[in-house]
Design a protein that fits this description.
This protein is α+β, with helices and mostly antiparallel strands. It is built from four helices and four strands; from the N terminus they run E-E-E-H-H-E-H-H. The protein has two domains: 87 residues, 2-Layer Sandwich (Double Stranded RNA Binding Domain), CATH 3.30.160.250; 38 residues, no CATH class. The chain has a four-stranded antiparallel beta sheet. It starts with a strand and ends with a helix. It comes from Vagococcus allomyrinae. This is Type II toxin-antitoxin system HicB family antitoxin. InterPro entries: HicB-like, TA_system_antitoxin, TTHA1013/TTHA0281-like.
């Protein structure tokens, strides 16, 4: 599940960068280079959004890009950071479940080489938005 939020990046006077997400509480990080900073920003965003899913909290509402851009200081710039939140969800124990599927559908799936368990997991993630 891809999510995109606006980040504010501050260039430090002595080098390095700090990042915060105005709309995502407690989502901030830093880096020595812009590449490291952007990678760290993606990771902190993924972790904080995954936490919200696990805590059954809604995703933060995004502010207007114009409003954030207009509030930037001279040493700041804004960037959109996109993350696949599903990569940051905690691994869980696999549970075996019995499901009822029409015989013709199973035969067709097997003929096509479709992994039933994997397909069910993908379908559930899509249905649940995770």
């Amino acid at each position: 599940m891809l999510k995109t939020y606006l980040a504010v990046i501050q260039e430090g006077e002595e080098g390095g960068y700090t990042v915060y997400f105005p709309d995502v509480e407690n989502a901030y990080t830093e880096g020595d280079t812009i590449e490291e900073t952007m990678a760290n920003a993606q990771e902190v965003l993924g972790v904080m959004l995954a936490y919200r899913i696990e805590a059954k909290e809604p995703f933060p509402t995004q502010s207007s890009m114009v409003a954030i851009h207009d509030s930037l200081k001279p040493n700041e710039f804004a960037a959109l950071i996109q993350v696949d939140v599903s990569q940051y969800l905690r691994a869980s124990t696999v549970v075996k479940k019995a499901v009822t599927i029409p015989d013709w559908l199973i035969k067709r799936a097997e003929k096509e080489g479709i992994d039933l368990s994997g397909t069910l997991v993908e379908a559930l993630k899509e249905k649940l938005g995770v």
